[in-house]
Amino acid sequence: MTSALATLPPPAGAPLTKKILTADHPTWCPGCGDFAVLHAFYRTLEKLQYPHEKIVTFAGIGCSSRFPYFVNTHGGHYIHGRALPFATGISLGGDDLHVFVFGGDGDGFSIGGNHLVHTARKNVRLTYVIMDNSVYGLTKKQTSPTSPIGFKTKTDPTGAIDQPINPMRTLINSGATFVARSHATQVNHMVEMMLRAAKHDGFSVVEILSECVEFYEGAFDASIPRKGGTWTLIDEKKNDGTPEDTLRHDTADDIAAFKLAQQAWPGSFGVFYENKNRKTKNALEAELVVKAKERTKNASDLAVLQATFSKMR
Amino acid sequence: MVSPNTPETPGGTASLAAAPQSIHDVVIRLAGNSQDGIQSIGGFLARLAGRSDQDIMTYMTIPSTISGGPSIFQVRMGTGEVLSAGDRADMLVVFYQHSYEAHIGSLRPGGVLIYDADHVKPTEGDNRFTQVAVPITTGTVEAVGGTSKDKGKNIYVLGLIARIFDLDGQKLGALIKERFGGKNEDVVRNAMLAFDAGYAWPQNNLRDLFFRFEAVDRAIAATGRPQVTMDGNMALAYGLIAAGVRHGAGYPITPWSSIMETLRAEFPKYGGLFVQCEDEIAAVSTALGFAFTGRLAVTGSAGPGLSLKMEALGWAVMAEMPIVVVNVQRGGPSTGMPTNVEQSDLLQAIYGSHGDTPRVVLAPRNVEDCFYIAIEAARIAREYSTPVLILTDMGLASRIEAFDEPDLSKLMVDPSPDLSDRGVDFKPYPLDRITRHAPAGSKVGTGKYPTVTGLEHDELGHPTGSPKLHVQMTAKRRNKIKALGASLPAPECVGDEEGDVLLVTWGSNWGPGREALTQVRAAQVKAAHMHLRHVHPLPNGLEETFKRFRKIVVAELNDEGLYGFGQFTMLLRARYANPDIVSVTKTDGLTFKISEIVAGIGRHLGSDVLAASGAANQNSALAKK
Question: A217 and A291: one domain?
Fold first, then answer.
């Protein structure tokens, strides 16, 4: 039970801290990578200092999709794979809200795969964090859309045989306007990626490799230096005119982003692609309203509907 | 027998017009191909009737092939209230031989067949009908001239009908100008040429075929409000706007699409938006996302799409999130008969989701009611924080009716979301009252922000596996819908207080049911008609009414199922455990004919009088007296 003291609201105008943002204790297994993602999200929100009531934490179904219960903001736990279209309604309905969607690889790339493509294409203003563990964990070890070929699961006891999704390639191709990749063992990097994603005006996605210690231990060791792996950061172009800058990655160049996405496992981490020019669906819909209101000369709702009925006499 | 091409009396003035034969109402069926613009004839007649004292109901079929192929439009015009599209036609206008062959069976004995002499050869010597050859194609081509070929045949026929039924040619001309006014002048001129040619033809050739509608009793007709004319889908869309709905999401499917098209164009004028989604599931999800921000939203579909939305609707029941879902029923299962009418989605609407999911289902009774039921659906969704489904159907979707213009100034609902601060006692799921969500954007006094959820939860929205809480929360979700049922008014019931048969209808069967009652009572059977707009939950007190009748006959457009009862009948039998509740069902994809209901009642009563219903064999209203 919480004490009466603990339920007292923070004083008005107090900065948002991890303490205020913490809600239920996570149900994840000890050692799960998702704890670090949650910690990085608290730190991101601490840096952003949005008005508390304007933040939304939303998710579908899966281990990582329990996220909203652990964050003290307006939130929701929806059905499997459909968090993005729901969040689309949140973003378009409340244009001043800051919408963060969390989910796993099954939720995002399998059952929700089509929604990912269309939310990206429409460039709805929201941030989507995919915690990719390359396995179905909540249902106890079945093959996921990012499981590598040969990975043994309960549905592929002799090893996975289907070609896995390449998340970066899929996202760039779908028209997402901010595409980044991070790792649950790199908290500072996660915070940096989430911050940039949140500040991006459009559909921003951060894929985070987050190990499932229960059903896919060691999945991402190849990218963890202390386990003998290599951690390769994307060296972004600085536009400083130096000769070495020409060799750096231009995040505005989708072909270059594709090439990065084609690297051999475990690949690079950082911002693959960022398009700052494409209008959001939020902005395009708002323009339709402005144009329509110009045509009706800002008439009241009653006057507009009455005029419509008068034409049908 | 009218002789076509009666020679004009040279210089005769007496023959300008014979005295018109007075009629109460008439059913005109027009049959051609879909590119002939037959629907627009119906549209013009409907709007004319709306501006006159005649009432009108139309019936339209468009084949699911996109263009070409047979198309019909049936219009029933009359004095006073017209309740159904009419069983059989008094006048049949056919454009092609195939139209003639397919529809001559629908013409009543003594009726008038008008056929395009350029395309149709009717059976010779068929003296059941008055056969009138009109050179529709050549008449149009001659009148319009130029390169437009036979385009305008529909307007020519409109002129023809206007003259035969002594309609107000000036008002019709004005309507044509309004309709084509936005296009170039040639279009208006050609249309008027075709209209005038059609209007002139009977005057010169058909002087004996001349009718006039009975004068309306002014005391009854005077409602003081002008009439508006539209189809059911439009009425529903504008009802949602009046209801303060400004957000929505959908995916195209016949016959729902025209609602989303209207809302996509209209919502921005009111500061809102409608999202065309990638699929049906995304559509219901986006609408729920709007509701999460405090903006009640609409989604909709037809049968197959409603099935796809079911998981999300179960979530909405669990999370107690309000939403309005329109389902324009069509023939099922699967793709079924997408341009035909059926009422076979009822059980899906009520029970389609997994788990115990009490929610609300309403069904409009006619086009006018599509407008008002949208307002009621939105009110219930907000008040009870629940999904509300509106079961309309293909029949209402495209049917054009004229009705009293709603008093919008009294009906408009404020669409603003309630983003006020929530107090320190705020709970998202209180057990002792109806949920009132704190929408995203509103401050919560406890400093503890809620998570709306599809998991079973405690009062604060935390997931729980507690059996006790699942029992309590299940009861909470059930009891609020029961409370709504208790608050509903008794359904409309007309006829005898007690007697042999109570006819029960729901949804669009209201009109045919009411006309059937008139015929049943005319045959000296003591009967009443009860109509339900609220199909789930049911209003209280129905059992008292049921007890006063020997048989309760439910007429519905779906299959009798494995046990011999339609879907609504099954519900009523289960609810009231009354074995006298029986069904009249059918699945031919068409709206009920009055005679089918009357004959069905006759079968259940064992009444020979009703079983061989006279309605089907009635002579045409246009038959020579």
Answer: no
Whole-Å CA distances, A210 to A45, A77, A127, B455: 20, 20, 18, 24
Longest dimension (CA), chain B: 96
Residues B206 and B114 sit within 8 Å (Cβ to Cβ): no
Residue A76, domain member (yes or no): yes
Which residue of B lies nearest to A52 if distances are taken between CA atoms? B443
Any idea which residue has 């949208």 for tokens? B374
A56 in contact with B, Cβ within 8 Å: yes
> How many CB atoms neighbour CB B133 within 10 A?
17
Residues of A in contact with B297 (CB under 8 A): 89, 93
ipTM at complex level: 0.96
Tokens of A46: 């601490």
The answer to whether residues A270 and A188 touch, using CB atoms and an 8 Å cutoff, is: no
Burial per residue of A46-66, b for 16 or more beta-carbon CB atoms within 10 angstroms, e otherwise: eeeeeebbbbbbbbbbbbbbb
Q: Flag whether A235 is in a domain.
A: yes
Can you list the positions of beta strands (E) in B221-308? 227-231, 247-250, 273-276, 297-301
Instruction: State the count of interchain CB pairs (< 8 A) between A and B.
Output: 192
How many domains does chain A contain in total? Answer: 2
Which mean pLDDT values do the consecutive 10-residue runs of chain B (625 residues) have? 40 52 88 84 80 64 52 80 80 94 91 94 89 92 78 92 88 85 81 92 82 68 75 97 98 97 98 98 98 98 97 98 98 92 97 97 97 98 98 92 93 97 96 97 96 97 97 98 96 96 97 94 96 97 95 98 97 97 95 93 87 62 76
